[in-house]
Write a structure and sequence with these properties.
0% of the residues lie in helices and 55% in strands. With 192 residues, the chain is mostly beta strands. Strands 1, 2, 3, 4, 5, 6, 7, 8 and 9 form a nine-stranded mixed β-sheet that branches. It has a four-stranded antiparallel β-sheet with strand order 10-11-15-14, with no helix packed on it. The protein has a four-stranded antiparallel β-sheet with strand order 13-12-16-17, with no helix packed on it. It is elongated.
Length: 192
């Protein structure tokens, strides 16, 4: 049974929505079916972070925008049809935590030059932007060979980044967007 999809709006072909529920089947061999009543198409289930507790699903590219439903199918098992909204741009990402890297322990600090992993629902393997804001100053980090998506069934999906050298001692707000989406609600970290 699907109990939630986060974010509730997903971009057609850009960004993952996280499908959570009870008694979901093993993701291997499962299909995520997106339907609007007149049209149905399979989304992509990203195996890395997906488990029986949650699926990371990229909605199909080119799917018509508007109200739709998402169902998980595996053999004869079919979940309930959960309502979602398909958009031309991804939904606003949701930051669910920040981890130290490589230990992957929860952290509230952001030391310039150190690595952190921002656990986020609604981002994709590429196309995300992390923004650090301190007062009137801001710094952006984008994917490259040092800053990349990291995932597994324990941590879900993260943007693993190096903290920029701009922020000084004090609080810094960290937010993330996917493609043309809005930036997430910021989380506040401490720069030691």
């Amino acid at each position: 049974t699907i109990t939630s999809v986060s974010p509730t709006t997903g971009g057609a072909g850009d960004g993952f929505v996280v499908v959570r529920g009870a008694n979901l089947p093993d993701p291997s061999g499962s299909t995520a079916v997106v339907s609007n009543g007149a049209f149905s198409q399979d989304g992509f289930i990203f195996g890395g972070p997906s488990s029986t507790l949650g699926y990371w699903v990229r909605l199909p590219a080119g799917f018509p925008v508007g109200s739709a439903t998402l169902q998980i199918q595996n053999g004869t098992l079919t979940s309930n049809a959960f309502p979602i909204t398909v958009s031309t741009t991804p939904g606003t990402p949701i930051v669910t935590g920040v981890l130290s890297y490589p230990a992957l322990n929860p952290t509230t600090t952001a030391t310039p030059g150190s690595e952190i992993a921002i656990v986020t629902e609604g981002i994709d393997t590429n196309g995300w932007v992390v923004q650090f804001t301190q007062g009137a100053n801001s710094w952006e980090v984008t994917p490259d060979s040092n800053n990349f998506a990291l995932s597994n069934a324990t941590i879900g999906f993260t943007a693993k980044i190096f903290v920029p050298f701009g922020p000084t001692t004090g609080s810094v707000d960290v937010s993330i967007r996917q493609g043309a989406s809005e930036f997430s609600t910021p989380v506040t970290l401490t720069v030691p």
